[in-house]
Amino acid sequence: MKLLVAVKQVAALDEDFEIRADGRDVEADFLIRDVNEWDDYSLEEALKIKEAAASPVEVVAVSVGPEDADEALRKCLAKGADRAIRVWDEAIEGSDSIAIARVLAAVARKESPQMLFAGVQSSDHAFASTGVATAAFLDWPHAAVVANLTYTPGGDTAVFRRELEGGVLHEMQIECPAVLTIQLGINTPRYASLRSIKQAAAKPIEVLSLQDLGIAAPDVGESGSLSRVRRMYIPDKGRAEMIEGDVEEQAARLAQIIKDAIGGAA
Amino acid sequence: MSGILVIAEHRRGELRAAALELVSAAQAAKRGAADKVAVVLIADKPERLMPHVSVGGVDEIVTVKISAHDFDPDALESAVGALIAARKPSLVLIPHSIDSFGYAAALAAKGGFGFATDVFKLGYEGSEDSGQAGLVATRGGYGQKVNVEVDFPGKDTIVLAVRANTFKPPEGVSSPTVTEFTAPPVRSRLSSRSFIEVSSGDDVDMTAAEFILSIGRGIGEQANVERFQELAAAVGATLGCSRPIADAGWLPKSRQVGQSGKTASACKLYVAMGISGAIQHLAGMKHVATIVAVNADAGASIFSVARYGIVGDLFEIADALRTHFEPGS
Ligand SMILES: Cc1cc2nc3c(=O)[nH]c(=O)nc-3n(C[C@H](O)[C@H](O)[C@H](O)COP(=O)(O)OP(=O)(O)OC[C@H]3O[C@@H](n4cnc5c(N)ncnc54)[C@H](O)[C@@H]3O)c2cc1C
Ligand SMILES: Nc1ncnc2c1ncn2[C@@H]1O[C@H](COP(=O)(O)O)[C@@H](O)[C@H]1O
Question: Which CATH class is domain B4-181?
């Protein structure tokens, strides 16, 4: 029995950042890397299923990315993932979520898990599409924004609740194996202990190439994608009037705005 | 390749507002009269929804009868896929919504269509004569701190999931032609069971509050929540929050503002402290007339919807603000 968890090393921007000379991304020096927040929840969901299971369950974390994605995978190992796989090849550079999904699907074919979990979306580019596209390449059933899951490892079906706009839940049943995209708040992710973080540093990360997965280079990167980034730019800051001055002055102005507005509203 | 298909979303028998916004998005993208706009109704009783989509700018309604009453990703993917194969549209617009998260990427991946999500701007650029005219879609990147333009080289059909509340629904009515389309049979691997309304036992109605003070992850830890409860009470505001605060259980879910929480419908003044301005948070408050954002990061995207901005430490601002609302002050 195996559960596969897709984890992404996302990037946040440094306060002062610069757009790359070709105008198509931010200069890499200004990117601060971290595990996608959603992936903490999907890993936790897999670990919970493993811990509650009557028979052995293996939790495998997989990330598509260059070496710095190891950091994300080590965090998963520290929290209790049994194995970690990283896939990389220069040709993957420039991939959109669909090309990444093609790679994840190949890993799933190799590992044949009973379930694949992905995050609802990534905090950097918010495609909200990698997980469901992976299911398409596998021809597996799929569901998005899962906020509650009832699944017994090895079961033919799972029952889940997807979280709709306004917070209403929609309960559905799905055939397994399936791909589910996991929503924030489905559980309370654990922290890794210092000891397990140290132990994880010594654990191996399996590194796979495109060749290992039988993927041709043109099927990833720009040529394997359904969209291409043409230009990235900093948008106009909009209409906000910035309240300057020291803290006292700023707070006094805010107090005045509040008093004016309440007076007007009442 | 011509024509624009708008996939109308509905839930529990009701058309969702995004369907009409997409008609306006289609108008914005139209290259000329030859680009007909067709609204597609995929439902168990599609004819019931027809009057609601007979609005200005709609040339045609396509009805597709399926057996599922509620959301069925397999049926939707198969029906839209068959429609694209039959009609070869240049553009297919879908709302960027919880439902589309569930099937749009699978549709695009299988069909190899051009594809982008959370698009808030779209249009053709370049001249058609030179054969260079291509669709350009704009979305956000790095937590909305940059705009990203994407194009779709070599793609004849492009599927775009369009952000809600971006295009205004069209005005006026129309008398579109109606076409029935028969979807191929599909065996769905999912079934719908029930809808569950979540109530959290908190008696506050965020949708009725006129003045909301909202806190986000910037408050750091649970122990700080109380300070803001006191501050909200002192200034006469209802305390609201972003999602991480509710997910952590620091405030009841009923206080969460945003796409999966409450809409600040009656709000006139919204003070956001330590909230970055994620699209899903903005969905619940960006319409408010006066928004004041307090954030340590001058680049936070909340400042792009705020009327007033304060770059600074929210604790310092909160303490200084408090002194203006002491009894007797
Ligand atoms: C389907 C879906 C539905 C969602 N629904 C909702 C929803 O209904 N509501 C919602 O809010 N989110 C929702 N989200 C989550 C959303 O994407 C964001 O993750 C969330 O809004 C982030 O909350 P935040 O701004 O509090 O946290 P962060 O994005 O972490 O921002 C914290 C901010 O605090 C600032 N800060 C830190 N310290 C200080 C300080 N000392 N002083 C001043 N500023 C400080 C930082 O600069 C930062 O901007 C949803 C997501 C999905 C995928
Ligand atoms: N490079 C990647 N490696 C592994 N998983 C990924 C990668 N990119 C996206 N994902 C998965 O897709 C989710 C985010 O979806 P998206 O917003 O479509 O990128 C993440 O939470 C991961 O589960």
Answer: alpha beta
- The tokens describing A172, both together, are 């559905």
Which CATH fold topology does B206-325 show? Rossmann fold (3.40.50)
Query: Smallest Cα–Cα separation from A39: which of A67, A1, A79?
Result: A79
Q: Do A14 and A33 meet the contact criterion of CB atoms below 8 Å apart?
A: no
Domain coordinates in residue numbering, chain A? 2-224, 238-266
Per-residue pLDDT, A239: 73
One-letter amino acid identity for A125?
H
Name which of B105, B112, B256 is nearest A132 (Cβ-Cβ). Answer: B105
Closest ligand to C-alpha of residue A100 is 2
Domain with CATH 3.40.50.620 in chain B: 4-181
Looking at domain A2-224, its CATH superfamily turns out to be: HUPs (3.40.50.620)
Torsion B8-B11-B13-B17 (CA) sign: negative
User: Ligand 2 centre from A122 Cα, in Å?
Assistant: 6
Cβ–ligand 2 distance for A145 under 6 Å, the answer: no
**CB crowding A170-204: b at 16 or more within 10 Å, else e:** bbbbbbbbbbbbbbbbbbebeebeeeeeeebeeee
Q: Residues of CATH 3.40.50.1220 domain(s) within chain B?
A: 206-325
Distance CA B144, CA B116 (A): 15
Asked whether the bond before A177 is cis by omega within 30 degrees of 0, the reply is: yes
Cβ count near A152 (within 10 Å): 14
Specify the residue with its C-alpha closest to ligand 1, atom 3. Answer: B260
**DSSP class per residue in B155-201:** -SSEEEEEPTTSSPPPPSB---EEEEEPPPP---SEEEEEEE----S
Q: How far apart are CA B117 and CA B101, in angstroms?
A: 9
Alpha carbon distances (Å) from B258 to A101, A165, B124, B229, B253: 29, 9, 32, 20, 11
Contact A241 B307 (CB under 8 A): yes
Beta bridge partners of A34: A10
Tens digit of each residue's pLDDT (9 = 90 or more) over B229-263: 999 999 999 999 999 999 999 999 999 999 999 99
- Spatial separation of the C-alpha atoms in residues A76 and A80, rounded to whole Å: 6
> What's the token pair of residue A105?
């699907």
Task: Look at residue A266 in the predicted model and tell me its pLDDT.
Answer: 42
Residue type for B146, please? Answer: V
Summarised one tens digit per residue, pLDDT across range B50-77 is 999 999 999 999 999 999 999 999 999 9
Q: Which residues line ligand 1 (CB under 6 A)?
A: A 120-121, 145; B 216-218, 242-244, 256-261, 274-276, 278, 280-281, 284, 294-297, 300, 313-315
pLDDT at A32: 96
Q: What is the spatial distance between Cα B210 and Cα B270, in angstroms, rounded to a whole number?
A: 8
ipTM for the whole complex: 0.96
